[in-house]
Amino acid sequence: MELINNDAVELWKQALHIIINQGEEFKDNDGRFCIEIINLALTLTESSPKIGEPVDIMMERKKWVYPSKEELSGIMFKEYQAPAYDYTYGGRIFSFGEELDQVNSFIIPLLKQDPTSRRAIVVLYDPVEDSKITNKNTPGIIYIQFRIHNNKLDLNCHIRSNDLFFGWPANIYQIYCLQKFIAEKLHVEKGSISTISNSAHVFKDDLDDIKKITG
Protein backbone atom coordinates (compact mmCIF):
# COMPACT_ATOMS: atom_id res chain seq x y z
CA MET A 1 0.00 0.00 0.00
CA GLU A 2 1.27 3.48 -0.88
CA LEU A 3 0.17 6.84 0.49
CA ILE A 4 1.29 10.07 -1.23
CA ASN A 5 1.02 13.61 0.08
CA ASN A 6 2.93 16.90 -0.03
CA ASP A 7 2.36 17.59 3.69
CA ALA A 8 4.23 15.58 6.35
CA VAL A 9 1.61 15.98 9.08
CA GLU A 10 -1.27 14.96 6.82
CA LEU A 11 0.69 11.99 5.48
CA TRP A 12 1.50 10.88 9.04
CA LYS A 13 -2.10 11.19 10.19
CA GLN A 14 -3.35 9.38 7.09
CA ALA A 15 -0.96 6.49 7.76
CA LEU A 16 -2.04 6.24 11.40
CA HIS A 17 -5.72 6.11 10.36
CA ILE A 18 -5.00 3.37 7.82
CA ILE A 19 -3.10 1.24 10.34
CA ILE A 20 -5.75 1.58 13.05
CA ASN A 21 -8.66 0.86 10.70
CA GLN A 22 -7.14 -1.72 8.35
CA GLY A 23 -4.23 -3.25 10.24
CA GLU A 24 -3.96 -6.70 11.80
CA GLU A 25 -3.48 -7.17 15.53
CA PHE A 26 -0.65 -9.22 17.01
CA LYS A 27 1.39 -9.55 20.20
CA ASP A 28 5.10 -8.84 19.89
CA ASN A 29 8.01 -10.52 21.69
CA ASP A 30 7.84 -7.94 24.48
CA GLY A 31 4.21 -8.80 25.16
CA ARG A 32 2.84 -5.56 23.69
CA PHE A 33 -0.26 -5.62 21.53
CA CYS A 34 0.26 -4.03 18.12
CA ILE A 35 -1.73 -3.17 15.03
CA GLU A 36 0.28 -3.63 11.85
CA ILE A 37 0.25 -3.16 8.10
CA ILE A 38 2.92 -4.91 6.04
CA ASN A 39 4.98 -2.96 3.48
CA LEU A 40 3.45 0.48 3.84
CA ALA A 41 5.04 3.06 1.53
CA LEU A 42 4.74 6.74 2.43
CA THR A 43 5.88 9.34 -0.10
CA LEU A 44 6.32 13.04 0.51
CA THR A 45 6.32 14.72 -2.88
CA GLU A 46 7.88 17.89 -1.48
CA SER A 47 10.88 17.97 0.84
CA SER A 48 10.86 21.11 3.00
CA PRO A 49 11.57 22.20 6.58
CA LYS A 50 7.86 21.58 7.31
CA ILE A 51 8.83 17.93 7.35
CA GLY A 52 9.77 18.51 11.00
CA GLU A 53 6.23 19.44 12.04
CA PRO A 54 5.33 15.91 13.26
CA VAL A 55 8.31 16.21 15.64
CA ASP A 56 6.96 19.55 16.87
CA ILE A 57 3.58 17.94 17.54
CA MET A 58 5.16 15.10 19.53
CA MET A 59 7.30 17.55 21.53
CA GLU A 60 4.21 19.57 22.49
CA ARG A 61 2.76 16.57 24.30
CA LYS A 62 3.58 16.63 28.02
CA LYS A 63 3.08 12.90 28.55
CA TRP A 64 6.57 12.04 27.31
CA VAL A 65 9.91 13.67 26.50
CA TYR A 66 10.43 13.59 22.73
CA PRO A 67 13.87 14.40 21.25
CA SER A 68 14.26 17.81 19.68
CA LYS A 69 15.09 18.30 16.00
CA GLU A 70 18.61 19.30 17.02
CA GLU A 71 19.03 16.03 18.92
CA LEU A 72 17.64 13.98 16.04
CA SER A 73 19.94 15.64 13.54
CA GLY A 74 22.90 15.08 15.86
CA ILE A 75 22.15 11.36 16.07
CA MET A 76 22.26 11.20 12.28
CA PHE A 77 25.52 13.10 11.83
CA LYS A 78 27.77 12.07 14.73
CA GLU A 79 30.59 10.19 13.06
CA TYR A 80 31.72 8.24 16.10
CA GLN A 81 30.08 5.09 17.38
CA ALA A 82 28.76 5.89 20.85
CA PRO A 83 30.09 3.23 23.27
CA ALA A 84 26.88 3.16 25.32
CA TYR A 85 24.85 1.91 22.32
CA ASP A 86 24.98 -1.17 20.12
CA TYR A 87 24.84 1.20 17.15
CA THR A 88 24.13 4.81 16.18
CA TYR A 89 22.90 5.93 12.79
CA GLY A 90 25.70 8.47 12.44
CA GLY A 91 28.30 5.87 13.29
CA ARG A 92 26.95 3.49 10.65
CA ILE A 93 26.62 6.23 8.00
CA PHE A 94 29.83 8.18 8.46
CA SER A 95 32.08 5.51 9.98
CA PHE A 96 30.78 2.09 8.97
CA GLY A 97 32.98 -0.53 10.56
CA GLU A 98 34.91 2.43 12.00
CA GLU A 99 36.50 3.01 8.60
CA LEU A 100 34.03 3.91 5.81
CA ASP A 101 32.33 7.27 5.39
CA GLN A 102 29.49 6.15 3.13
CA VAL A 103 28.36 9.70 2.30
CA ASN A 104 31.51 11.74 1.71
CA SER A 105 33.61 8.88 0.34
CA PHE A 106 30.97 7.18 -1.80
CA ILE A 107 27.53 8.78 -2.30
CA ILE A 108 28.66 12.31 -3.13
CA PRO A 109 31.62 11.37 -5.39
CA LEU A 110 29.50 8.73 -7.16
CA LEU A 111 26.63 11.09 -7.96
CA LYS A 112 29.01 13.84 -9.03
CA GLN A 113 30.64 11.42 -11.45
CA ASP A 114 27.44 9.72 -12.59
CA PRO A 115 24.22 11.62 -11.76
CA THR A 116 22.16 8.77 -13.27
CA SER A 117 23.62 6.13 -10.94
CA ARG A 118 21.29 3.71 -9.17
CA ARG A 119 24.07 2.54 -6.82
CA ALA A 120 23.98 5.47 -4.37
CA ILE A 121 22.95 3.45 -1.34
CA VAL A 122 23.84 3.93 2.32
CA VAL A 123 23.59 0.70 4.32
CA LEU A 124 22.92 0.78 8.05
CA TYR A 125 22.50 -2.95 8.73
CA ASP A 126 25.80 -4.64 9.55
CA PRO A 127 25.50 -8.46 9.27
CA VAL A 128 28.65 -8.96 11.35
CA GLU A 129 27.13 -7.11 14.30
CA ASP A 130 23.39 -7.43 13.71
CA SER A 131 22.87 -10.97 12.39
CA LYS A 132 23.05 -12.59 15.80
CA ILE A 133 20.01 -14.41 17.16
CA THR A 134 20.55 -12.92 20.62
CA ASN A 135 20.82 -9.33 19.34
CA LYS A 136 17.41 -7.63 19.49
CA ASN A 137 18.74 -4.07 19.18
CA THR A 138 19.35 -3.71 15.46
CA PRO A 139 18.75 -0.69 13.21
CA GLY A 140 15.21 0.05 12.12
CA ILE A 141 16.47 1.80 9.00
CA ILE A 142 18.13 -0.81 6.78
CA TYR A 143 19.22 1.31 3.81
CA ILE A 144 18.76 4.72 2.23
CA GLN A 145 18.99 5.20 -1.54
CA PHE A 146 19.61 8.51 -3.29
CA ARG A 147 18.80 9.21 -6.94
CA ILE A 148 18.96 12.37 -8.99
CA HIS A 149 15.87 12.89 -11.13
CA ASN A 150 15.09 16.15 -12.98
CA ASN A 151 18.01 17.75 -11.14
CA LYS A 152 16.44 16.92 -7.77
CA LEU A 153 17.76 14.48 -5.18
CA ASP A 154 15.10 11.88 -4.35
CA LEU A 155 15.45 9.69 -1.26
CA ASN A 156 14.08 6.21 -0.64
CA CYS A 157 14.39 4.63 2.80
CA HIS A 158 13.63 1.03 3.82
CA ILE A 159 12.64 0.51 7.46
CA ARG A 160 12.30 -3.05 8.73
CA SER A 161 10.17 -2.18 11.79
CA ASN A 162 8.53 1.22 12.18
CA ASP A 163 6.43 2.54 15.05
CA LEU A 164 4.45 5.02 12.96
CA PHE A 165 3.36 7.02 15.98
CA PHE A 166 6.63 7.52 17.87
CA GLY A 167 9.25 6.48 15.33
CA TRP A 168 8.21 7.87 11.95
CA PRO A 169 8.28 11.59 12.88
CA ALA A 170 11.89 11.20 14.04
CA ASN A 171 12.91 9.01 11.11
CA ILE A 172 11.45 11.27 8.41
CA TYR A 173 13.13 14.33 9.89
CA GLN A 174 16.49 12.56 10.23
CA ILE A 175 16.59 11.36 6.64
CA TYR A 176 15.44 14.80 5.48
CA CYS A 177 18.51 16.28 7.19
CA LEU A 178 20.72 13.78 5.38
CA GLN A 179 19.02 14.52 2.04
CA LYS A 180 19.51 18.26 2.57
CA PHE A 181 23.20 17.79 3.37
CA ILE A 182 23.88 15.70 0.27
CA ALA A 183 21.75 17.88 -2.04
CA GLU A 184 23.72 20.96 -1.00
CA LYS A 185 27.02 19.19 -1.67
CA LEU A 186 25.77 18.17 -5.13
CA HIS A 187 24.25 21.60 -5.88
CA VAL A 188 20.85 20.13 -6.70
CA GLU A 189 17.40 20.68 -5.23
CA LYS A 190 15.81 18.33 -2.71
CA GLY A 191 13.24 16.02 -4.27
CA SER A 192 10.76 13.53 -2.86
CA ILE A 193 11.22 11.37 0.23
CA SER A 194 9.77 7.87 0.50
CA THR A 195 9.77 5.46 3.42
CA ILE A 196 8.91 1.80 2.96
CA SER A 197 8.09 0.15 6.28
CA ASN A 198 8.01 -3.64 6.28
CA SER A 199 6.19 -3.54 9.62
CA ALA A 200 4.27 -0.27 9.91
CA HIS A 201 2.64 -0.51 13.31
CA VAL A 202 1.25 1.25 16.35
CA PHE A 203 0.85 -0.04 19.89
CA LYS A 204 -2.65 -0.40 21.28
CA ASP A 205 -1.51 1.28 24.51
CA ASP A 206 -1.00 4.47 22.45
CA LEU A 207 -4.41 4.54 20.76
CA ASP A 208 -5.89 7.25 23.01
CA ASP A 209 -2.90 9.52 22.40
CA ILE A 210 -2.95 8.82 18.67
CA LYS A 211 -6.62 9.76 18.45
CA LYS A 212 -5.99 13.03 20.32
CA ILE A 213 -3.41 13.97 17.69
CA THR A 214 -5.15 12.68 14.58
CA GLY A 215 -8.62 13.87 15.59
Mean pLDDT: 93
Whole-number count of domains: 1
Number of strands: 7
Would you tell me the structural class of the helices and strands?
alpha/beta
CATH class: Alpha Beta
CATH topology: Thymidylate Synthase, Chain A
Map the helices and strands:
Layout: E1 2-5, H1 8-22, E2 24-27, E3 33-44, H2 53-60, H3 69-77, H4 89-94, H5 103-113, E4 121-123, H6 127-130, E5 141-149, E6 152-163, H7 167-186, E7 189-203, H8 207-214
Parallel strand pairs: 1-3, 6-7
Antiparallel strand pairs: 2-3, 3-7, 4-5, 5-6
Word description of this protein:
- The chain is of the alpha/beta class.
- The chain has one domain: Thymidylate synthase/dCMP hydroxymethylase domain (Thymidylate Synthase, Chain A).
- Helix content is 38%, strand content 27%.
- It contains 8 helices and 7 strands, in the order E-H-E-E-H-H-H-H-E-H-E-E-H-E-H.
- It has helices spanning 8-22, 53-60, 69-77, 89-94, 103-113, 127-130, 167-186, 207-214, and strands at 2-5, 24-27, 33-44, 121-123, 141-149, 152-163, 189-203.
- Strands 1, 2, 3, 4, 5, 6 and 7 form a 7-stranded mixed sheet that branches.
- Strand 2 (24-27) and strand 3 (33-44) form a beta hairpin.
Defining key terms:
seven-stranded mixed β-sheet; 7 strands; globular; alpha/beta
Short description, anyone?
The protein has helices at about 10-20, 55-60, 70-75, 90-95, 105-115, 125-130, 165-185, 205-215, and strands at about 1-5, 25, 35-45, 120-125, 140-150, 150-165, 190-205.
